[in-house]
């Protein structure tokens, strides 16, 4: 069990921090940037949990909305697990593989394959994609889209040091971004909401000027 009695140490006041192996590097170091991005994804998943918990799972008459309850249960279980896995991943990425402590628990192939298994399960319920999906929706869905884009940024950063990380970590992050996308679709379907699809240029509204004028004339 980890025991932390003091968070502020003053050791980073000069713009440096420590890697897992104890070596000191600038906070602008590539590994530190990667670890920070991993932490950013984790924090966004915390927002997803918050938003999913806000969804009312009772009808106006007091009856339970079973579908909502199931969405909340899946989010709580899956994202709760992911947050711990991302914490493990961030710790690993803060050090080169040859300097990792022997006691450290690492992301493995089983964790990566579990993401695929869950994606396949959700995909069984989903209709085929007929267009690109815009990154928007209800609170939990929109936040998942944001987490997905930051996960892609994490992946791009990791590719920059691909020879200095274990291959399974990059595989895991690549699959995670797909996992987040498919989860947005599954939640949208389960909640009975509509996906916002990309509209080709020739079919888009030309602007909101006329709409604004009508609004003003109707005031």
The name CATH uses for the topology is Hypothetical Protein Ta1238, Chain: A
Number of DSSP helices?
6
Number of strands: 2
Helices and strands, in N-to-C order?
EEHHHHHH
Helicity level, as a percent range?
55-70%
The main pleated sheet reads as: 2 strands, antiparallel
CATH superfamily annotation: Cobalamin adenosyltransferase-like
Overall pLDDT score? 87
Looking at the structure, what is the overall shape? globular
The CATH architecture name reads: Up-down Bundle
How many domains make up the coordinates?
1
Radius of gyration, rounded?
A: 21 Å
CATH class: Mainly Alpha
Q: Outline of this structure?
A:
With 219 residues, this protein is mostly helical. The chain is 56% helix and 3% strand.
Helix and strand arrangement:
Layout: E1 16-18, E2 24-26, H1 30-54, H2 66-93, H3 109-123, H4 139-159, H5 167-190, H6 209-217
Antiparallel strand pairs: 1-2
Helix pairs in contact: 1-2, 1-4, 3-5, 4-5
């Amino acid at each position: 069990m980890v025991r932390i009695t003091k968070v502020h140490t003053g050791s980073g006041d000069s713009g440096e921090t420590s890697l897992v192996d104890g070596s000191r590097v600038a906070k602008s170091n590539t590994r530190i940037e990667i670890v920070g991005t991993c932490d950013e994804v984790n924090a966004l998943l915390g927002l997803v949990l918050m938003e999913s918990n806000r969804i009312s799972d009772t009808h106006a008459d007091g009856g339970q909305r079973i579908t909502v309850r199931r969405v909340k249960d899946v989010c709580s279980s899956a994202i709760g697990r992911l947050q711990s896995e991302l914490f493990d991943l961030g710790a690993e990425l803060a050090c080169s593989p040859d300097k990792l402590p022997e006691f450290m628990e690492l992301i493995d192939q089983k964790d990566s394959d579990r993401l695929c298994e869950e994606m396949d399960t959700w995909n069984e319920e989903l209709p085929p994609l007929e267009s690109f999906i815009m990154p928007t929706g209800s609170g939990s869905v929109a936040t998942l889209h944001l987490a997905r884009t930051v996960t892609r940024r994490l992946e791009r950063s990791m590719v920059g040091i691909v020879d200095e990380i274990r291959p399974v970590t990059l595989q895991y992050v690549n699959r995670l971004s797909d996992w987040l996308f498919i989860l947005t679709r599954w939640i949208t379907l389960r909640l009975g909401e509509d996906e916002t699809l990309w509209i080709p240029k020739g079919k888009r509204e030309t602007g909101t000027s006329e709409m604004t004028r009508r609004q003003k004339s109707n005031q």
